[in-house]
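User: I've been going back and forth on whether these two constructs are worth ordering. Before I decide, could you fold them both?

Assistant: Sure. I'll take them in the order you sent them. The first construct and its C-alpha cells:
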Amino acid sequence: MGYHDCPLNRESLGFCTWSLLHTMAAYYPDEPTLDQQNDINQFFKLLGRVYPCEMCARDFAQLITFRPPVTSSQEALSDWLCGIHNQVNKKIGKTIFDCTECNERWRDGWKDGSCD
C-alpha cells in the first residue's frame, strides 16, 4: 500500500481504521459487562469526534446516531459494525462484505488455512 513510511492518505487510513474496529469487535466479550458496553459505546462516539478525516468523522457520527452500536455480545457488535461498514462501502462504491464471515476474517483466520 505504500503507507509504511509516509503519512496515511484517506484510503489507507480508512483501511487501517476499519481493520482496527473489526478486530476490536471480533475480540469483544460474548457476555460484556455494563462497563464494557459503555466503554465501547463511548469509543465509537469519540471516534466520530476526533477522527482525522473530518468528512469521515462527520459521516460516522451521523451513522451511529441513526444506528447506535449493538453491544450486547461479540456477535451483535460484529454484525452491527459490518452493517455500518457495508453502508459506507455501498455509499463509496466498494464491495459489500458477507457479515457471516467477520470472525473468520478478523479473529479466527480463513478456514482454508491461508492465515496459518
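The second construct, handled the same way:
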Amino acid sequence: MAIATVNPATGETVRTFEELGEAELEQKIALADERWRTYRTTGFEERAACMYAAADLFEKEADLAAELMSTEMGKTLAAARNEALKCAHGMRYYAEHAAGFLADEPLADPSRVGATRALGRYQPLGPVLAVMPWNFPMWQVMRFAAPALMAGNVGLLKHASNVPQCALYLESVFLRAGFPEGCFQTLLVSSRRVESILRDPRVVAATLTGSEPAGRSVAAICGDEVKHTVLELGGSDPFVVMPSADLERAAATAVDARVQNNGQSCIAAKRFIVHTDVYDAFTEKFVSRMRDLRVGDPFEASTDVGPVATEQGRADIEELVADAVAAGASVLCGGRRLDGPGWFYPPTVIADITPGMRIYLEEVFGPVASLYRAADIDHALEMANATDFGLGSNAWTNDEAEQERFIADLEAGQVFINGKTVSYPELPFGGIKRSGYGRELAAHGIREFCNLKTVWIGDEGASS
C-alpha cells in the first residue's frame, strides 16, 4: 500500500509521501538509540512537564487533529475531536501517575532473604517500535506513547500507511512540547520493512495493534530475537441481553456499541446474543434505531456513520455479508453498499446465522451486527465464547447472580455489565486467546516496557 492520504468519503488521493530511504531510516534508529541513553536518566518531573505541555497542545489543536483524522480515515468530526481530547486525558493521566506506578517496591522484611534492604525497581528498556492501526490513529498511539515516554523509553512509530499526516502530527506534538529530539519519531516505511527494524539490536521491544496475521508475524520475529511484545489483535465481541435488562437502554447502547468509529473498532460489539424471551422486543428496537442512522460526509454534524476507511475494507464486509445471505441468513436492514463516490456501507443487521457461515467466527470490521437467539444463560455463554477472539464483552442483566456468572465465565480480557466496552486510561486493556496478550493502560500498561530489576543489599559488615 502506498503511503498516502486517500479521503474515504470521496476516494480522492489528497497527498502522497515518499518512503524513508535506508540511510534516513538508519539515522532515525541511531538517534533513538543515542537519545534514550540520556533520556532514561531524566526524572519523572521533567518528563511530566513535557507530557503536560503535549496534552495542552492536543487540547488547543483538537480541531486540527480532528480534521486530519476525519480526512484520512473517515470517522465523524465529532468522534475525531473526542479522540483528540481523549489523548490529552491519557497524557495527563500518565504525567500524574507514572512516578507512583513505577515507584520502588520494597520487601517488607528483607531479613527473610538475608538482606538489609531488598526491592524491585522499574527501569526503561530502550527504543520500542509501535506498529499501529488506522482506526484510532491518535488515541491508539497515545496508549503506547504516553506511558512509554513517561517510563523513560523512546518510541519509534510505524503507523498505518493510510494515516501518514496523523503520524507526522503526533511526532510534531511531542517535539513542540519539549521532548528531546529522538524521543518519539515517525517512520514512514512500508510493512515489508518492519522485520528489519525489529531485528535491529537497538530496537528492544515492540507493540502492535492490528490484524491477527500481522500479530503473528511480529510475535514470530520478536520471539526469534527474544524481544518483548504486546499484541492487541482485534475481537468479535459479544453483547448479551437477558430478560431483566432495560431493553430501551440496551438497544440504544447496542447501536452505539456497534457503529462507533463507523463500526471499525476492535472493541465494538459485533455479535448480539439475546435471550429468547426478549429477542423479538429487542430486535424491533435495535433494527429500528440502526435503520434510522444517517450515513454521510463525516464533516457534517448530522452524520452518524461515515465511510469505511478503505476500499478493501468495504469489499471484505461485502464478502462476509454475501456469504451469510447465500447460506440462508436474513438481512433485517442495510446489506448493500451505497451508490456514489466514497466507501460507504450502511448500518446492517443480519439474523438467522448458523455456524457454517464465515460471519459466525470472523470479525466484521464495519457497521454490521449479527443477531443470535439464546435459550438461556448457558446457551448465551456457549455462543459468546464460541470464537477464537477474547478482547471485550458486554452483558446486560439486572440479576446479580447472572452478573457474577458473566464476570466469571465470559472468555475475554474485559467484561462490561450494563454498558458498552470502552478504553479508559484508568483501566487495563487487552485480550486473551487470539486477541493477543499483554496489557495497555493503567499501571499495567506503563510496566509492560520496563525491566523490573530485583535489588538485594546486604550488610557489608557481615561475614560471608
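Notes on the second construct follow. The chain has a mean pLDDT of 97. The two ends are 64 Å apart (CA to CA).
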